[in-house]
Design goal:
The protein is built from nine helices and 25 strands. By secondary structure, it is of the alpha+beta class. The strands form five sheets. Strands 7, 8, 9, 11, 12, 13, 15 and 16 form an eight-stranded antiparallel sheet that branches. Strands 2-3-1-4-5-6 form a six-stranded mixed sheet, with helices on both faces. A six-stranded antiparallel beta barrel has the order 17-23-20-19-24-25. It is globular.
């Protein structure tokens, strides 16, 4: 295992997403991060300056660095998820700037689904609003490991500490109702799910450089926190899972008997000689060899792409899952999950769909929609009959053939799935198998240090 730890110690990539209500300043914050960290090319900055002057603005509108769609610039809002890549000497970043409108909640789900940190912005003048609670709940539902509560526009409230403290306290109370462990504003990022930071994205206070107007705040700036927050989602510590993507049978004179199963390790690590089970068939074998980048290796771990060779000739095809024999997930045809509906057409009981889980796609039918979640107060609306765009609710799906799913609480990779329209291939719903945060909230205690991702 030391080999894995040594390899991971060189990893400096952080995926994070921004979220918040409309006009809270998400795009301006992102633009400020890019500008002040000197991650903007000269021609990009000149284009933004020219666009700002043409709109009668004396200073560059840094929001234009991320709002690239014409409709976004015309309306001054973010509509689609904008991905940006930048780096500092300490870490590389992949940023998803997500929209704030209620009707684009599904875009926030998309951007945060792979994030290791979410920045939730709050306008200091307005405090915690419904969309703030919605985005915090989505971050908790998706089990994003870290959250930054960025209380923005502090310059418009005279940099008043009581305003910041009241917002952080209100957000804390709501987070506690989500059952989030390790909560605490402005504390040690090693211990807290959320760190609250007072900022002014427009003026640059506490974004990259510490603010001269808020000497009462002694915590990190946004960039300092992003550079130092631990990436706690260690895939090698999860249950080992290897979805088969392709069967390699060259049947050539050089390799007449070669049979390998190629794919990307979703979680955990595999070793030569390890006993494994192939699901859903349940057949067992041992790993005879692992090929990575054209060479044989003794061990491989997530997220490496490898070819696994088994000691026995058993029936293995695309969509099968290879797992340790003593740690294999349960196989089921009845999937209970929390879902976010992302399509414009509703999801209804009795609807026939395709369910895509890792590399396996099977026919399925929606048996029941027990409830729809109201995110502002976490109340359950029983038996809604359907889910419309941006709705989050519970569903029960029956599949035509067995699936090997983990609970999403155990693995974000192998506990998630998509429901797809079989007629045109449209993605209908993003699902998270197992219990939701609301069902688990009562089981969370003050001693819990972190979720088991």
């Amino acid at each position: 295992m030391s080999t894995i730890s040594d390899e991971l110690s060189t990893t400096t990539l952080l995926r994070f997403a921004t979220a918040g209500s409309v006009d809270d300043g998400k795009s301006t914050l992102v633009g400020r991060l890019l500008h002040d960290s000197k991650s903007v090319l000269t021609d990009q900055l000149e284009a933004v300056e020219h666009a700002s002057r043409s709109r009668g603005q004396k200073t560059p509108d840094l929001a234009l660095l991320t709002d690239g769609l014409r409709a976004e610039r015309e309306q001054g809002i973010t509509i689609d998820v904008a991905y940006r890549y930048f780096a500092t000497p300490r870490r590389r970043f992949i940023l998803a700037d997500t929209p704030g409108h209620v009707q684009y909640t599904r875009n926030m789900v998309t951007g945060a689904s792979t994030a290791e940190l979410a920045v939730v912005l709050v306008d200091a003048r307005n405090g915690v609003v419904e969309q703030t609670r919605r985005h915090a709940a989505v971050a908790a539902l998706l089990r994003v490991p870290h959250v930054v509560l960025a209380v923005n526009k502090m310059d418009l409230v005279d940099y008043a500490e009581p305003v910041f403290a009241a917002i952080a306290e209100e957000f804390t109370a709501y987070a506690a109702s989500l059952g989030v462990p390790g909560w605490g504003p402005g504390g040690d990022p090693q211990e807290n799910w959320c760190t609250a930071i007072p900022i002014s994205a427009l003026a640059g206070d506490n974004v990259v450089e510490p603010s001269a107007h808020m000497d009462w705040y002694g915590g990190p700036t946004v960039l300092e926190h992003l550079e130092t927050v631990p990436v706690s989602h260690d895939l090698t510590g999860c249950h080992a899972r290897f979805p088969v993507q392709y069967v390699i049978r060259p049947q050539s004179a050089e390799h007449p008997d070669y049979r390998g199963y190629a794919g990307q390790i979703a979680a955990g690590a595999f070793r030569v000689g390890e006993a494994v089970t192939v699901l859903p068939s349940g057949r067992t074998s041992t790993i005879a060899g692992i090929d990575a980048l054209g060479e044989s290796v003794d061990i491989a771990w997530a997220p490496q792409s490898v070819t696994v060779r088994l000691a026995d000739d058993i029936d293995v095809s695309r969509g099968d899952l290879i797992a340790p024999a003593d740690d294999a997930p349960a196989v089921t045809q009845d999937v209970e999950a929390t879902v976010c509906h992302v399509a414009d057409q509703p999801l209804v009981v009795g609807q026939r769909v395709l369910l895509k889980h890792t590399t396996r796609t099977v026919k399925a039918i929606v048996k029941d929609i027990p409830s729809r979640l109201t995110l502002d107060d976490l109340s359950q609306h029983p038996a809604p009959g359907q889910l419309v765009a941006n709705d989050i609710g519970r569903v029960v799906v029956r599949t035509a053939s067995p699936l090997a799913l983990d609970a999403y609480a155990d693995s974000r990779r192998t506990g998630s799935f998509l429901l797809i329209d079989p007629a045109d291939g449209t993605t209908l719903t993003a699902g998270m198998a197992g219990a939701s945060f609301a069902a688990e909230a009562e089981a969370v205690t003050a001693d819990d240090a972190e979720w088991d991702f």
